[in-house]
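Dear U.,

For the methods section draft, I wanted the exact inputs and outputs in one place so we can describe them consistently. I've listed the two proteins in the order they'll appear in the manuscript figures. Please don't edit the token lines directly; just add comments below if something needs changing.

First protein:
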Amino acid sequence: MNDWGRPLWIAHRGGGRAAPENTLAAIHAGAAAGFRMVEFDVMLSRDGVPVLIHDDTLERTTDGRGAVAAHDFAALRRLDAGSWHGPAFAGEAIPTLGEAIDLLIGLDLDANIEIKPAPGHARATGDTVARMVAARWPAGRTLPLFSSFDFDALDAARARAPEVPRGLLFEAVPDDWRTQMRALGAVSLHCDHSRLDAERLADIVGAGIPLLCYTVNQADRAAALIAAGVRGLFTDCLDLPGQVAGC
């Protein structure tokens, strides 16, 4: 556990490469590998149900076609979201955020919930995700961490559930990161480790901001980031923590 109260290692999209991403099977895989924190993406169906999926479209991770936001939840639920990963996961369903929350609670997991709106649905997605987490998360348990590349989605989540902490998510960290963090009341900054230079890293760490990096799949890079003060590593390789000394 980091000194900011969350685990260093975070299973990317639930279970990294061990299971089909953004499924309940993935979250189970992350927990089974010893991870105490998982990350997953949430988008809205056409009828406003928050579901776990990364892409705006269905083709890569399901047997469906077209935009996620063009399908009602009932149609999304009939899709196979597991066979693309392997026959052992055939029939794995697209889960709802509510189901994921129940599983997190049952497995005693921390989570980074990435709000990933379809185009034109930023504020609705942020509001819906925040409303559900605020309503269903048990009192007395550490709240999950929201993040998003979309400023408006994260702002809507802040407005709906200001008590749920927020992380500002970038590919490359812009020069105005401090201004954006203040505007959103963000508690952490998340970015692509491959687009993070040493000077920017030192600036963020020196400011006392918890810095989380994605997607770190090499032991030497993980060790260097940890040594430099990075507080969280999203990884697809569930055996990576055991390869990094002291972790």
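Second protein (the one for the lower panel):
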Amino acid sequence: MPIRLPLSVVLAAPLLIANGEPMPRITSDSHEYCTELVGRFARLPGAAVEPARSLAADGVRLCEEGQPRAGVAKLRRAIRAAQAPP
């Protein structure tokens, strides 16, 4: 009979380190983090093409309007789009 683990244990497994303590996961929804993501995006070769360019513009706008969580999400999508092979 297979062992059944709760879904929360399965999802948390990658966050565990060798000594069994959870690894801290740092996320930031600040204007500074938006600025950092914009810098990363600008260095990518696909930053000038659509849809990456529009996603980044939306992300910057959201960050400037005081919505850093939504802005960070858009900027992360823009980075993934800019990294995608042509």
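Candidate sentences for the figure legend, describing the second protein: The radius of gyration is 17 Å. The mean pLDDT is 78.

Thanks,
Y.
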